[in-house]
Write a structure and sequence with these properties.
8 helices, homodimer, alpha/beta, DNA-binding
Chain lengths: 213, 213
DNA sequence: AAATGTGAAGAGGTTCACAGCG
DNA sequence: CGCTGTGAACCTCTTCACATTT
């Protein structure tokens, strides 16, 4: 009944892991809402969780552990995933480090770059490969997910090649439209766009301040 | 009539700049929809653009240049913005480089880190400062926007300090909830969450394949 | 008493169908 | 004739109010 692709579910998952790490074993919908900074109402949370199968105890709240398990099942986090990163500049490097350190379900299994200065260097026991070897290595390392951390003009062709090599999910940091059809899932992280949303918010605040004056 | 914070407007802006760079001077709502990969309908585009003030020529389409100008006005991109980056690991470095290279309206004016190995090093003529100098330097450099590229536990306190120093917009890459009140605008970029959305999509595809079998 | 679960009302955003210009 | 602009229908998501359970 709820769209499982809703960003809220991921927010719940993170907040619940936080609470769990702090030693909580149970939480109310109201408490979870507070942890999310009041961006989601407690009613909303109850509706969402109820539609994943009733897991709460009336009068007490939700037990955290089974709830996290249930969420991970729905979100596909109970299995392991293998990642290929294209572009090993600062961004690619940061992503590899972050993912390896924080997300045990995700494994960086292949890294590609175009620059001879980077190709052949090692990271965490993995040799950075020439981008021309993409098809071969993606298949050998059985990667499910591709990450694009390359300059904008390179993004679309590499995405095509990843898709052809069997990758069905791509996380794209390049400010470019990929034009891939299903069954490839694409998520775009548009840093310039996010900055723009902030500048808009700031100009809106300014306008409000002027109105009040 | 349209929410100016809609991600669509930023997508329009980027697609129009792309089209402009390719030499187009005019575009139809249908053509713009195609550029966006069919994620937005042409009707939707016309509604959005109309609510910014009628700019199209019936029978011909939209002239790109005035449209981009109008969008930049609404989005707050006609003025310059000064950015402070907290955390100068690989991610902070990547963001500084990306923003400086690609977005002329945004200027990185202050960089902070905690590690003695990084403090005092230069980047693009800017000295990386100790995080303890945040308040002083943010005000001296007159920064409007803060970027958090620090580990999760450090994020919330630094955000508080940024807000206290007068910053009213924060772009947060740390997987943590900041708990700031208005008038501080916050955008969170949740990399783990984005990856989770992809894994969900992949498991959903799998389920569909099983159903068909 | 405290908190969940849920039908009904409400709000917001999207699509449809077509009128209006160039 | 082509494409924009827009009121009305439509649909999805959110909030409200309250019954329900421990």
């Amino acid at each position: 009944m709820i769209d499982p692709a809703s960003p809220r579910l991921y927010a719940y998952h993170r907040a619940l892991r936080e609470a769990s790490a702090e030693g909580c074993t149970t939480i109310t919908s109201e408490g979870l809402a507070a942890r999310l900074g009041g961006t989601v109402s407690s009613t909303q949370i109850r509706k969402d969780l109820a539609s994943l199968g009733a897991l709460g105890r009336r009068g007490c709240g939700y037990e955290i552990y089974p709830l996290v398990t249930q969420l991970e099942l729905v979100l596909g986090l109970e299995q392991d995933w293998r990642i290929a990163i294209a572009g090993f500049g600062y961004l690619g490097h940061a992503l590899a480090t972050f993912i390896t350190a924080r997300e045990s379900r995700f494994r960086v299994n292949a890294i590609f770059d175009r620059s001879p200065a980077v190709i052949g260097t090692q990271w965490n026991g993995l040799v950075v490969a020439d981008i021309s070897e993409l098809e071969t290595l993606v298949q050998r390392a059985d990667c499910n997910i591709g990450i694009l951390a390359v300059p904008a003009p390179a993004a679309a062709p590499i995405a095509q090649r990843m898709a052809a090599a069997g990758i069905r999910a791509i996380l794209n940091f390049a400010p470019a439209t990929l034009h891939l059809r299903a069954p490839v899932a694409v998520r775009n992280i548009d840093i310039a766009g996010e900055l723009s949303m902030l500048t808009h918010a700031l100009t809106a605040f300014g306008a409000q301040a002027q109105e009040r004056a």
